Amino acid sequence: MRISRRVDLERAEHERLSPDAAFSDRSRGRLVVEEPDLLRTCFQCDRDRILHSKSFRRLAHKTQVFLAPEGDHYRTRLIHTLEVSQVARSIARPLGLNEDLTEAIALAHDIGHTPFGHVGERALSDAMARYRGLDDSGAPHGRLFAHNEQSARIVELLERDGHGLNLTREVVDGIRCHTGSRRSETLEGRVVALSDRIAYVCHDIDDAKRAGLLSESDLPEGPRSVLGDSSSQRIETMVHDVVSSSAERGDVVMSESVWNAMMSLRDFLFENLYSHGDAKWEEPKAYAMLTELFDHFAAHLDEVPEEYRVHDGDRPDVQVADFISGMTDRYAVSVYESLKVPRSWRRR
């Protein structure tokens, strides 16, 4: 049986991938230089490091849309991440892009997300602004805490007890640029950014339908006529459109009609599910709980675990945000109860 070593895999990339792909042997490298692995390319190593990290495992118990859903079939942040990875690989493969790089970025893109989804992100950002005596609307980019920046911070600094995962620069760039106005320097990173939107638009509709909050007939007719009448049809339509449009344009893009249809569905979800829907009625409690946790730990920094105090000693609010953002939903509730809820007295 023949062994394929790293150099063989790198050579094979040049034989089968598009000239526009990111090649492993042309990576811009890591912040800390390491001896290359004998069997795996640098992007394969990155993927494995992410998969085995504590932060990745915690995604299993973090909210996607529904807070603490009662049912086994609603998406968690981990399931969302895996679905983004699947969509991204389905786009990268026919375009001849580097699937290992694409997968690594996708697996880590939400690794810095807070408990309770975007309401947690907003709570930490507002709490940090108050701590600094700022109006949060005046903070850089409108937020002091952003999950994409936190994801990059985790892999660069916080994982492995403050040492970071030392990933390649291409992976960190793709993580940081998966949302917001900045575009990734690699086509693989741009694939993940678009796949993130495709995945959450489709599966959030699916979860809302399962919860009885939306029906297929509630969705606007225009986007349905373009994308399809089910989640699987919509994903297939968008994936095929990205592949054909990107091949034609030489960049990762959608056609105008499919892009407009996807964004119309996204706007519909923001209006009817993300911002005002019945799935959000518990969010004020989550927001209040996380801000109270922030205030407590900012006043009792010695209670923050040491691994979160390795960096930024002059910015205690950042250390507290690192700690709280890493919590799962249920751990945040447990910590809050231990601090705020009186326990039954018993003789010691």
Model description:
This protein has 348 residues and is an all-alpha fold. Helices cover 58% and strands 0% of the residues. The chain has helices at residues 6-16, 42-51, 54-58, 77-95, 99-108, 118-131, 147-162, 169-176, 187-210, 221-227, 231-249, 256-274, 283-299, 316-325, 329-340. Helix 2 (42-51) packs parallel to helix 5.
The helicity comes to 55-70%
Number of helices: 15
Compressed to H and E, one letter per element, the order equals: HHHHHHHHHHHHHHH
Radius of gyration: 21 Å
Mean pLDDT across every amino acid position: 92
Percentage of β-strand residues: under 5%
End-to-end CA span: 65 Å
- What's the story with the biggest beta sheet? none
**Would you identify the regions where 5 or more consecutive residues have pLDDT less than 50?**
none
For the secondary structure, the number of strands is 0
Structural class: mainly alpha
- Mass-distribution shape: globular
